[in-house]
Amino acid sequence: KAGVTQTPRYLIKTRGQQVTLSCSPISGHRSVSWYQQTPGQGLQFLFEYFSETQRNKGNFPGRFSGRQFSNSRSEMNVSTLELGDSALYLCASSLQGLAGGTDTQYFGPGTRLTVL
Amino acid sequence: QKEVEQNSGPLSVPEGAIASLNCTYSDRGSQSFFWYRQYSGKSPELIMFIYSNGDKEDGRFTAQLNKASQYVSLLIRDSQPSDSATYLCAVDMIKAAGNKLTFGGGTRVLVKP
Predict the structure, then answer these.
(1) H/E segment holding residue B76
(2) Considering only CB atoms, which chain A residues are within 8 Å of B107?
(3) How far is A80 from chain B (nearest CA, A)?
(4) What is the pLDDT along chain A (116 residues), one digit of tens a residue?
(5) Contact state of A42 with B104 under an 8 Å Cβ cutoff
(6) What is the secondary structure of chain A as a DSSP string?
(7) Contact criterion met (CB < 8 Å) for A43 and B88
(8) Does residue B100 sit at the A interface (CB-CB below 8 Å)?
(9) CB B11 within 8 A of CB B97
(10) Contacts of residue B43 in chain A, CB cutoff 8 Å?
């Protein structure tokens, strides 16, 4: 079974631009969660999508948004990029996700975003 | 106080020894606990999860959970150089905005031959 895939793997943008990242979950998984990982803050939860609906949300500004399609693929968008948005963005998929007891999440390889 | 705390390390252990990693969490209502391993430049991969108090063994790994004391630990027996990585503790927390998986900062483990 193929794992979680993310595209692109690397991205360089400048301040003020916007960016869209893509995540394809493991076949059959309906939940996709997004995380930001930086050396200073570690791994932080952004949001979770399940059946095309945002079900859970972390403490990030509204510049960070996402969506999920009917085939469970998910995209994350960051608008008006700031230098501090430079990070590794990871998505993770699971069968049922964060609902009354998390089931196992499988991470993709991540997208390394650099904001200049 | 961070919601999930881990000693950042590095934890240096000789090959063949037992590595002991600890994690404490603040949300007493948390029910699910996970240990992930992350090699440098790679994404986290699940080692094991634990839901019930006590010990859970999987190969060379043993997770221990004590909900009354709000800590979870991971033991790595017969440590190998390939175990050198950062180990992340993750806790499922129920928040007003819904559940979220909260990660500790990770413990870096170095296994010396």
Answers:
(1) strand B71-76
(2) none
(3) 25
(4) 689 999 999 999 999 999 999 999 999 999 999 999 998 889 999 999 998 999 888 889 999 999 999 999 999 999 999 999 999 999 999 887 666 555 788 999 999 999 99
(5) yes
(6) ----EEE-SEEEE-TT--EEEEEEPPTT--EEEEEEEETTTEEEEEEEEETTEEEEE-S--TTEEEEE-TTS-EEEEE-S--GGG-EEEEEEEESS-SSSS----EE---EEEEE-
(7) yes
(8) yes
(9) no
(10) 90, 107-110
Provide the token pair at B18: 């037992």
Contacts of A55 in chain B (CB under 8 A): 98
How distant is the Cα of A81 from the closest Cα of chain B, in angstroms? 23
- Beta carbons of B85 and B21 less than 8 angstroms apart: no
Q: Residue A5 is encoded by which pair of tokens? A: 């895939």
